[in-house]
Each structure stands twice: as C-alpha cells, then as structure tokens.
Amino acid sequence: MKHVGSLSLLRKPAPGETTPLEQLILTVFGVYFRDWDNFPSVFSNLQKYYSKTA
Q1: Is residue 1 a part of any domain in this protein?
Q2: Could you give the number of structural domains in the chain?
Q3: 13, pLDDT greater than 80
Q4: What is the distance between the alpha carbons of residues 29 and 31, in angstroms, rounded to a whole number?
Q5: Residue 44 in domain
Q6: Alpha helix (H) residue ranges in 1-54
Q7: Residue 29, burial from CB neighbour count under 10 angstroms (0-12, 13-18, 19+)
Q8: What global pTM score does this model have?
Q9: How far is C-alpha 11 from the geometric centre of its chain's CA atoms?
Q10: Tens digits of residue pLDDT in 24-52
Q11: How many beta carbons lie within 10 A of that of residue 6, not counting itself?
C-alpha cells in the first residue's frame, strides 16, 4: 500500500467528468461483475468517485 501515499500526494484537480479511458474501465467492470450481488452499489460508488471534483 506504499504506492497509495504517493498517489494521494498529487495536487491536481479532478476534471469532474469521466474520461473515455475511465468510462472504458467502468464498462469492463460492468460486463465482468454484472452477476455479482454487490455490483450495483460498487458501480455507483465508482461513478461517484470518478465524477468528484477537487
């Protein structure tokens, strides 16, 4: 978990919307985990995380 500390030190503002790459990642997760019971809440939280602004 050492890498998390270095990532959280970035002081770059979030754009407030998902990039095409982030949308692709969310889509792949959606296809792969669609049968998972907790998927709707996890997917919703991922979308909220990616859409946050600084």
Answers
A1: no
A2: 1
A3: no
A4: 6
A5: yes
A6: 2-8, 20-32, 39-51
A7: middle
A8: 0.42
A9: 18
A10: 888 888 888 778 788 788 878 878 887 77
A11: 8
